[in-house]
Amino acid sequence: MAQHLSILNPENITEHRNNAQDRAHHSAIQIVGESEVSKKQLIMPTTKVYIVYYSLYGHVENMAREIQKGANSVPGVEALLWQVPETLPDRVLEKMKAPEKADDVPEIRPEQLVEADGFIFGFPSRFGVMAAQFKAFFDATYEIWATQALAGKPAGIFWSTGFHGGGQELTALTAITQLAHHGMIFVPLGYTFGNGMFEMEQVKGGSSYGAGTYAADGSREPTELELQQAFHQGKYVAEITRKLKT
C-alpha cells in the first residue's frame, strides 16, 4: 500500500513525467538524426569513375571490363568504360589481324574527362611507354590541361606488355608524367592486393603501380590471378575516389 501511495506522490508523478519527456525527446532526436543520415545518403551524388583504355588485340579490354566490375562493386559508384580513338588506318589494322573494336564501348573525347570524379587508364606498352594511340589522346587534352580541370582528381593505371622485360614497370613510370602535368593524384596499388602480389609459382603481370598482364605472341589471355588483381584495382581506386568526393 505504501508503495502505491509513493507512486501517486505528486513529486514522483512529476519526476516520472519529466523522465518520460526526456526519453521521448531523446527518441525524437535519434529519429531525426537517422532521418537526416538517410536523407543525406539519398541525396549523395553518384561518384563517377571513367575507365579509359586503348586495346589492339583485346588484352587490355579484358582487364578493363574486370576493373569496371570491381569499381561498380563499391556502393554509390558508377564506373563507365571508354575507348580512345584509333589512329591506325583500316588497311594497317587488317594486315595486323586486329579484331574489331568493342561496339558496346563508346569513344571518348578529351573534354568529356571533366565529367568524371576519378579515372583508371589502360593501354598496351610500346617500347616501354604507352601506345601511341593513348599518347595521342593525352596530347589532345591540352585545353583542359590549360585550365587544370582535372587537377586533384585521382587516377590509376593498368597495362599489357608482350613479355618479361617488356616494360611492366617502365610503362607505368613513363605514364605517370601525363597525370602529373594534369595535376591528377596518382593512386598506385601498393601491396593492397595481398598475397597475390608475391606470387612466384606462375607468370603474373602488374606491380605496385597497377594491374598488368602479358600478351606474349597475342595468344596468352589475362590469367585468373591477373583478373583478380584488376578487379581489386577497380574496387580500390573507386573507394578512394568516393572518399575524396565526399
Task: Give a quick precis of the structure.
With 246 residues, the chain is of the alpha/beta class.
Top CATH class: Alpha Beta
Instruction: Note the beta-strand portion.
Output: 15-25%
CATH fold category name: Rossmann fold
SSE arrangement, N to C: HHEHEHEEHHEHEEH
Q: Taking all residues together, what is the mean pLDDT? A: 88
The percent range for helix content is 40-55%
Uncertain runs are 1-8, 24-29
Catalytic activity: a quinone + NADH + H(+) = a quinol + NAD(+); a quinone + NADPH + H(+) = a quinol + NADP(+)
EC number: 1.6.5.2
Enzyme class: oxidoreductase
GO molecular function: FMN binding; NAD(P)H dehydrogenase (quinone) activity
Fold and architecture overview:
This is NAD(P)H dehydrogenase (quinone). Its cofactor is FMN. With 246 residues, the protein is of the alpha/beta class. It has one domain: Rossmann fold, CATH 3.40.50. The chain has eight helices and seven strands. Strands 1, 2, 3, 4, 5, 6 and 7 form a seven-stranded mixed sheet that branches. A hairpin with a 2-residue loop joins strand 3 (118-126) and strand 4 (129-130). Helix 3 packs across helix 8. It is globular, with a radius of gyration of 27 Å.
Q: Which helices and strands, and how do they pair?
A:
Blueprint: H1 2-7, H2 10-43, E1 47-53, H3 59-72, E2 77-83, H4 90-95, E3 118-126, E4 129-130, H5 132-139, H6 142-147, E5 154-161, H7 170-182, E6 185-186, E7 212-214, H8 224-245
Parallel strand pairs: 1-2, 1-3, 3-5, 5-6, 5-7
Antiparallel strand pairs: 3-4
Helix pairs in contact: 3-8
List key phrases describing it.
246 residues; Rossmann fold; alpha/beta; disordered N terminus; 15% strand; 8 helices
